[in-house]
Specification:
Shape: globular
Largest sheet: 4 strands, mixed
Order of helices and strands: HEEEEEEEHEHEHEE
Strand content: 25-35%
C-alpha cells in the first residue's frame, strides 16, 4: 500500500540523490493455523531510507526484454521463514484462496520497469497488490493431501481419471527469474466416453 505525498514532487526531485520515494508499506502475517504466527512489517520510509541511502538490492539477472531483476536483502524474502515452521519454501501459500505464493515474494526479487525506479518501493507495491490494507496472509503448512491409495479409490469410485504432475525445477537453479524447487499439480476429470461405431452392412450394388 502506497500513500500519496502531501505535496507534488517534480521529476527533477525524483533524481536527486537521497530523495525518498513515495511512502509504501506491506504487512505480512505467516501462520500455520496451529498457534504459531509471525507478523512482518515492510516499509520503505524507515527500512528503505536511512541517512539518504537505499536498501542494497543488487542486479541479479536480466529478462529477455532487457528489464533488470533485483534481489532485496534476507529480511524481505519469505522463503527464509519456511524453516521456522518446518516446511519447504514451496509449501508457503496464500491463506486467502490457497493459491501458490509468488516466487518473487519467496526470493525477494523484483523486476524494474523504469530505470529510475526504487527496488524496495516497487517490491512493496507488488507485495501489497490487491490486498485490503496492504496486508498479505500466508499459510505455512504442508498440504493436507490424502494417502495415494485413498485418492485412487475415490477416483475409481467416482469414475474419474486423475493426472498427477510433479515438476522438478532443478534446471532453474541459480536463475532467480524462474521458479525454484518443486511444484505439484493434480487434476481430476470425467472419464472419456468411447463411442463404438458399428458399420452398417452395405448392400451389393446393382447394375
Amino acid at each position: 500500500m502506497c500513500r500519496l505525498r502531501p505535496q507534488p514532487v517534480t521529476a527533477a526531485l525524483l533524481h536527486l540523490p537521497g530523495h525518498p520515494p513515495t511512502p509504501c508499506e506491506a504487512a505480512i502475517a505467516i501462520t500455520d493455523l496451529a498457534g504459531r504466527v509471525v507478523h512482518l512489517s515492510w516499509r520503505n520510509d524507515a527500512s528503505g531510507w536511512r541517512t539518504g541511502r537505499r536498501v542494497p538490492a543488487p542486479h541479479v539477472a536480466t529478462h529477455p526484454g532487457g528489464k533488470p531483476l533485483h534481489q532485496l536483502p534476507e529480511q524481505f524474502r519469505l522463503a527464509g521463514w519456511a524453516d521456522h515452521f518446518g516446511v519447504r519454501p514451496e509449501d508457503l501459500v496464500e491463506l486467502d484462496g490457497g493459491g501458490s505464493l509468488d516466487h518473487d515474494l519467496r526470493d525477494g526479487t523484483v523486476t524494474l520497469h523504469r530505470p529510475d525506479a526504487d527496488p524496495l518501493t516497487e517490491y512493496l507495491r507488488w507485495a501489497a497488490r490487491g490486498q485490503p490494507g496492504g496486508r498479505l496472509f500466508v499459510l505455512a503448512r504442508r498440504p493436507d493431501a490424502p494417502p495415494l491409495a485413498d485418492l485412487v479409490r475415490l477416483v475409481l469410485g467416482l469414475r474419474l481419471t486423475v493426472t498427477i504432475t510433479l515438476t522438478d525445477h532443478v534446471r532453474n537453479t541459480g536463475d532467480l527469474r524462474l521458479i525454484q524447487g518443486e511444484s505439484w499439480d493434480e487434476r481430476a476429470d470425467p472419464r472419456p466416453r468411447w463411442r463404438h461405431s458399428r458399420a452398417r452392412p452395405r448392400s451389393p450394388s446393382r447394375r
